[in-house]
Amino acid sequence: MNDDKSSNIVLLVGFPRSGTSWCSNLLNANKDICYRHEMIGRNHELFGQELFTALKENNGLTEAEYSQAIKIIRSAHIESDKPPFFKKNSGLKKYPKFQYMVWALAKLVKIVRPLYNLLFSVSSTSPTKMLLKETRSLKNMKSMASGLKVSNLICLVRLPHGTIASHVKGVKKGTMRQVKPSQKAEILSEINQSKLQDLKSLIQNIKQPEDMSDIAYYAASWTLYHEELLELQQLFKQCVICFYDDLVNAPVEQTQQLLAKIGLQYDSATSEFINSSSQGEAPILKDAGDKYFSVYRDASFNKDAWREQLSNEDIAIIDKYCMPMYSKLKDIISTDSL
Fold this sequence. Notes:
Blueprint: E1 9-13, H1 20-28, E2 33-37, H2 49-57, H3 63-74, H4 96-108, H5 113-120, E3 129-134, H6 141-147, E4 152-157, H7 160-173, H8 181-193, H9 197-202, H10 214-233, E5 239-243, H11 244-249, H12 251-261, H13 268-278, H14 306-309, H15 312-336
Parallel strand pairs: 1-3, 1-4, 2-3, 4-5
Helix pairs in contact: 1-13, 2-6, 4-5, 7-10, 8-10, 10-15
């Protein structure tokens, strides 16, 4: 999919609650990259209906459409810009605290939003890489990545137990929605259409959507997502599959390798973010989310907390539904990636 005409866009994808926001900010700490939060997912209205439809369905854009899409991605928007902000090479983005103040004011006062856009957009002549992070479904992602001529694809994978425990915790806290029977019906249909025979065998005794546990729903969703991720990964020469748990265990070494894969250097700002977000130190810049969604963790953060949060039955279900796919992903990177 990649060629000499590829843009300077890096696409990072991952299943929800896989650490994608943390990893995106880890990369965004570098002065040569600028992060756009879920711009072609929940903020797709920024493109307008006609352009977004072309992006989603046409497996490529016209030159005029491509130029329009890149201009939108380089533009600053309060919806797709998400603190913390980091120091960049040029313009007023050299002053992240000032950017945060203008961003916060623009969130409150609509008349300030055009000014925010004017002050903090990335110049068309800047070599800055644009990082797009997405946790939406990977359906249509091939068309979108082709249309934007994505130069690098980063696939972030988290151990399914941690991801699913985070979903369960989010539902209990009221920060995530309860699974509906209609969603379970949809996932059962997707399993039946999947090529994964092992997954199909696990639902043979499920007669009604209500018979499927929430844990089984999350586990099946995780596996189907990564089945699509593998199909997307095969289309990219410049693809990196990296594991969240490895990044947390060895953040400096793993981040150095990840940055090198996308043509960036590890620097002091990246090191400072790792210290602030991973080791319980005080945040370097204000975060936009509450504690549950925050990219900063206090000293009590434990990526393996799922061992206490999930029952033995839950863990057994996740093992059956997810670990064959997880092992397949691990086998790929043992010879080809991080």
